[in-house]
Write a structure and sequence with these properties.
The protein is built from five helices and no strands. With 85 residues, the protein is an all-alpha fold. The chain folds into two domains: 33 residues, no CATH class; 31 residues. The chain is rod-shaped, with a radius of gyration of 28 Å. The termini are far apart.
Length: 85
């Protein structure tokens, strides 16, 4: 890491404050980010949208319809799903 054992001992004892550069070196040596080293939790990965573009387009169209028309389409989908078609 390029830090002496004595300097690391000072950091561990709290007798010296770590510099940003030292923090970066320690984080790099441990294979983590400085934020992780400081106790921050990593944000969960963003969900991957696997919906086909053609389906997304139809959902967008459906969202623009009147609620009664949406319900009629939902009933058709539910019936088709029940019948296995």
């Amino acid at each position: 890491m390029g830090l002496s054992k004595r300097m690391i001992a000072h950091y561990e004892a709290g007798s010296k404050a770590m510099t940003v550069t030292a923090l970066q070196k320690v984080a790099s040596a441990l294979g983590v980010t400085v934020a992780t080293l400081m106790g921050e939790r990593a944000a969960p990965p963003a969900p991957v949208n696997t919906t086909k573009p053609s389906v997304r387009k139809r959902v967008e169209i459906l969202q623009k319809l009147a609620p009664t028309d949406q319900q009629a389409i939902f009933r058709m989908i539910d019936n088709a799903a029940k019948n296995g078609t």
